[in-house]
Design brief:
The complex is a heterodimer of chains A (about 270) and B (about 325). Chain A is mainly α and about 270 residues long. Chain A is built from twelve helices and no strands. Chain A is globular, with a radius of gyration of 23 Å. With about 325 residues, chain B is of the alpha+beta class. Chain B has two domains: about 230 residues, Rossmann fold; about 90 residues, OB fold (Dihydrolipoamide Acetyltransferase, E2P), CATH 2.40.50.140. Chain B has eight helices and 18 strands. Chain B is globular, with a radius of gyration of 23 Å. Classes of the chains: A mainly alpha (about 270), B alpha+beta (about 325). At the A-B interface, helix 8 and helix 9 of A face strand 6, helix 2 and helix 4 of B.
Amino acid sequence: MRSDQSNRASTGLKLAAIAGLLFMHLPILLIFVYAFTTEDKTYQFPPPGYTLKWFAITWNRPDVWEALQLSVKVASISTVIALVLGTLCAAAVSRSKFFGREAISLMVILPIALPGIITGIALRSAFNLADIPFSMWTIILGHATFCVVVVYNNAVARFRRLSGSLIEASMDLGATGIQTFRYVVMPNIATSLLAGGMLAFALSFDEVIVTTFTAGQQATLPIWMLEELVRPRQRPVTNVVAMVVVLVTFLPILGAYYLTRGGDQIAGSGK
Amino acid sequence: MTSAVEFKKTSRHFGKVKAVDNVDLTIGEGEFFAMLGPSGSGKTTCLRLIAGFEQPTQGEILIFGESAGGVPPYLRNVNTVFQDYALFPHLSVAENVAYGLMIRKVEKSKRIRAAEEALAMVRLEGYGDRKPSQLSGGQRQRVALARALVNKPKVLLLDEPLGALDLKLREEMQEELKGLQRSLGITFVFVTHDQGEALSMADRVAVFNDGKVMQVGSPQDIYHRPKTRFVADFVGSSNVLDGTFPGKQPNKNVAASLRPEAIRIVKSGGHEADIISVSFLGAVTRIGVDVGGCKLQVLVDKAQSSLAVGQKIRVNWSNDDLHYMEAASE
């Protein structure tokens, strides 16, 4: 028997929950507010006036564009690498049994569990040892290590839900491996790949720690923001950029959430 | 009789497990052939060997006289109806049925017509636009059947296709499958663990146990003349009588099978028996009796309400109903 009384939270608990949520999200709103302030040296609250001029100033700053361009490039390329490697790895782990399968599964997931600073230091010393000059590509390699994980995690869950006999059915009906991948596997894992790819993109886009260790002179957008905060001039420009970053990363995450929601039924097992 | 499928000393071992062990089997063209056995007896592996999902570790398989060694599933003129149907969830019913034709690059208008015909054959006209998830179990089963048959395979493999259906639907589908097979003339190879299904549908039955074929024959052969104790036991739960059974003492090395329906209750003569169990099965009643320490199953055709546990009755059977087999064989 279900009692409504016992399922209802007490007022105290409700207030605590609201306070917690506000604590997490109000500072983000504050960032948005400061993007419109007329005062540019200290973050004075409440802002003495409101203006849109920082948007124009940001638009005309070449360093912002450079950083944004680099970030988009890095995020896109690491996402593509992650999509290919993550899908292949997920297919291998969920579709076949081999010695060391569990170990591989663990090793693939490990980079996201490791503190970024460790990944960063490890990669930096490895690049140094191998005499690889730091460039955009070293940043991409660093990002790919954790981007692979999110794609892998998404894909492996979908692969497990994909009934194995679907692939056999396709082969049975005359399709080669490549045709089966195109007509049966891809349509069934596409949304999970999209979701994984979006998450990977968002993760890469705002990554700071690994980037600081694997970058040379280049600054990705988050690194540029970090540098900019130290300078007490045109501070609201940083806030404008922050708003853009929040929007750019929030939308894909929201999309990924909706794409992977539901669909708990095992695909292709119809009893 | 041309052979559609031939197993030649075929084995499929998974490490130490001998899933299929030295099987020799010939399935004739146009035959409705059942592979019957308990789970893990190797019947499904045999089916997968024909389909090409497994390769034999020893021996070979011939499909219409040609060795299938190394031929991948997609190059075999054989189609499968899977146990879980394996319908593609992202495709409509019509697209599912037309999948094989689409892969073979059949013109779109032709394959739509072929899919409609195939759906009509399994009495699912007008269901083409639905998704498999919108169908009932029985309907999905028909779609799976249509999807396989639309390719006009030389051999149709069915892996426990009726296992997930309820009794009424199952009986209906049994009739339908038999009818389809007769009208199409395609060789059907049917895997089942249900002996009733195998006996009622198949032209010939192979009984599997532990990866080996125990006996191959017509349903009547298998039922009335089991070669081994296992067959007698598995197909229709025969009473197996060994050297100690009452009445005529046979040779010590020989056992006999006695069908439960061959035992009659008599007023006098025969053997004295204690009733130890009574189960009402609807059309018949099954009673367990103890005849001088030997436990027998008896099927009585009318629901005799007078029978009760502990009662003493007399039972008898004709010696013609005793079917002798080698006691040593399992």
